[in-house]
Amino acid sequence: MVQITQDHLDELEFPKLLSEIAPYAYSPKIAAEILETKPQQIDVAVSLLKKTSEFLSSYESENAIPFDEYEDIEEELRLMLIENFRLDAGAFIKIKRITEQVGKLQSFFPKFAEIFPHLSAEVRDLEFRKEIIDKISAVFNRFGEVKNEASPLLKEIREEISLAKRAIQENFNKSLTHYAQQDFLDEIRESIIDDQRVLAVKSVFKKRVSGRILSISKTGSITYIQPESVVKHYYQLRESEEREKKEIDRILRKLTAEIAEFQPELFSYQKYIFSLDITRAKALFAQKINGVLPKINRHKSLKLINAFHPLLWIQNKAENKEIFPQTLELTQQNRIICISGPNAGGKSITLKTVGLLQLMVQSGILVPVHPKSEMFFFDKLMTDIGDNQSIENHLSTYSSRLKKMSKIVREADENTLLLIDEFGTGSDPELGGALAEAFLEYFYEKKSFAIITTHYTNIKLVVEQLPHAQNAAMLFDEETLEPMYKLEIGQAGSSFTFEVAEKNKIPRFIINAAKKKVEREVVDLDKTIVKLQQEKFEVEKLKSQLVEKQQFTQNKKENLQKLNEQLQQKLYNFQKLYEDEHRKLQFGTKIQAFIDSYAKGKSRKEVVKDFVKILEQEKYRKQDSDKTEAEKLKIVRRKVSQELKKDSVIQNIAKVEEKIQEQNRKERALWLKIGQRVRIIGSTSIGTIEKIDTKNNKVTLNYGLFTTQISADELERV
Predict the structure, then answer these.
(1) Residue ranges of the alpha helices (H) in 205-346?
(2) Does residue 328 sit in the same domain as residue 475?
(3) CB neighbours of 710 closer than 8 A, spacing ≥ 6?
(4) Which terminus of the chain is less hemmed in, N or C, by CB atoms within 10 Å?
(5) pLDDT in tens, 176-195
């Protein structure tokens, strides 16, 4: 069971990392859920990692996953279960769109099941109910309005409304013309009162205009009258509109009840869409930090190659600064790494990098490491990084750290990763070093995994004596006294105390006085460490050069061998050609001899007998030759099979495919026009081309309630 407290999550800046992922979510609810992410059990986390990795791969290919922005239907799912409740038009449109989204995904993933096996499996379990879309589409048009055809009565009522509006319009225009000719109207002639057209009648003539007075101007000079010929139709209109409202209400209540029957399916759709939204957000973040899925093992082997701190990556990239990767390994044979070296050399950030990457992978988040890296899961991750002085509890730094170490000692076991910075500091160097040594030996006996940093020489010496522990150093340029930010495993590092002090303009007489006060053995040890570190660096450099030369030599050897094989083949072909020509010449000579002997009187029977003998000889020779050629053909086929795996052949295949695609594009250009009914290849939904972007090879499709943009290469005409 995973037991990682919030304190340790905070210390490794895990919440800050989550805040970088959350904005990628479509839904505010999911963004909030991402912020609450916690490390999971290995099976759950691995499943999340694989789905995220598959989603990420879609950005690196043309197989874009058709997952668009959505609105959640949680509130609608709750309300539709209330008896006789009526959802509004917007709710139905949201339900329809989320169902269509699931339908598109269910259609998409099976086509690419080999590329997206885990994403395909997830959507496969959903029961897609097209009836939901059909029922909503039967009531609403593409603008989200209730159709006339939603019911026969509604169609009838709307026809009445249309007639009433037409009658009002016609009668008002007649009255307007008539009274204008009588000069009863003001200069403005008409106005709008309560959404109704009214005549602007001069008040002195109001009694001469039949109709309903709706208002009078502030000055009293104008009286606003609805003509008598309009009033009757107006009341009919209002009555029809009220009937329309009631019918729409009835239709929507009925539709709500029908859709409520699919509430379990809709709930599963919502849950799935939420899950996919999280996966998408993680994939987009992984794309930003070059995150990958390392190999996940269960044999307790942590192998980080070129590992980056993701937050530092983002920060340095924004500031155009260089960031240095780290490489290290923890196994059961090498459980503890003790990092030493000067301050500001990268020791603390190395701890935080390992810790944060571990939290990420155990939370289903891809990590910025080399793909050949390996990671496993810890039940506990405990940290002590930085200054933990507690003002509230009036504790000193040392007391605060001891309190934390007390908890670590109680809980640490073989499934724990410990990350402790400045191990043993905060008290008397000699006594603090002794206590730190005791802690280290205890963690070693508990078989805990740990990465610690220290300046204590005694800790470095203890680590050197433990068979399953290793020293490591943050490299430091001895000449420039600048940190190299590179971790060197297998060698303890020097703190470069006096050298750094000298660089920071501390007077030499003070530094010399300090050296005299330090035991000579300690100074000599520090110098020896520096020397060995430099020598090891040079050895590694020479080793690397040697490997490169060996590789170069091997490549040369392979090229020469290939050239030799080609020359041997040519020689064989020339030899075979010579033999064939020579044999033909001999055969021709024998035939000529037969002709000469027959011409000189030799009997036909004897000539034929000799000729048949030669034919039999040639037959047996040909059979032997065919066997030899068959064996050679097998060898050739084997070589060809090997060659097919090479990049050159793959490239040729790609070129052929490109030519086929080009031919398809030429054919498509003939029918690709605005208004053409088309569908996405492999889809059943039919849309109409609304716009064509020739420059970018993009087409805007209209599906009624929504539009979408897609590559023209993915379309087929209906």
Answers:
(1) 228-260, 263-289, 310-318
(2) yes
(3) 680, 698, 699, 701
(4) N
(5) 999 899 889 888 999 999 88
Confidence of residue 390 (pLDDT cuts 50, 70, 90): very low
CA distance 279 to 285: 10
Do both 455 and 325 map to the same domain? yes
Query: For residue 666, is it within any domain?
Result: yes
616: containing domain: 551-643
Q: Look at residue 701 in the predicted model and tell me its pLDDT.
A: 78
Could you tell me the two tokens for 487? 């971790």
Same domain, 602 and 688: no
Examine residue 240 and state whether it is found in any structural domain, yes or no: yes
Q: Does pLDDT of 628 surpass 70?
A: no
Average pLDDT over residues 189-213: 90
Asked if residues 325 and 306 have their Cβ atoms less than 8 Å apart, the reply is yes
Q: Which of 287-296, 400-409, 558-567, 573-582 has the highest mean pLDDT?
A: 287-296
- Please state, in angstroms and rounded to a whole number, the distance separating the CA atoms of residues 634 and 10: 65
Q: Half-sphere exposure of residue 229, counting CA atoms within 13 Å on the CB side?
A: 15
Q: What CA–CA distances, in Å, run from 147 to 138, 144, 442?
A: 8, 9, 77
Q: What is the CA radius of gyration of the chain?
A: 43
Same domain, 453 and 305: yes
527-541, 571-585, 601-615: least confident range: 527-541
Strands (E) in 423-480, as ranges, are 449-453, 469-476
**Cα gap 93→142, rounded to integer Å:** 9
Tokens linked to 638: 């084997």
The C-alpha atoms of residue 72 and residue 269 are separated, in whole angstroms, by 10
CA–CA dist 79, 652 (Å, integer): 59
Q: What is the pLDDT of residue 388?
A: 45
Task: List residues bridging with 329 in a β-sheet.
Answer: 303
pTM of the model: 0.67
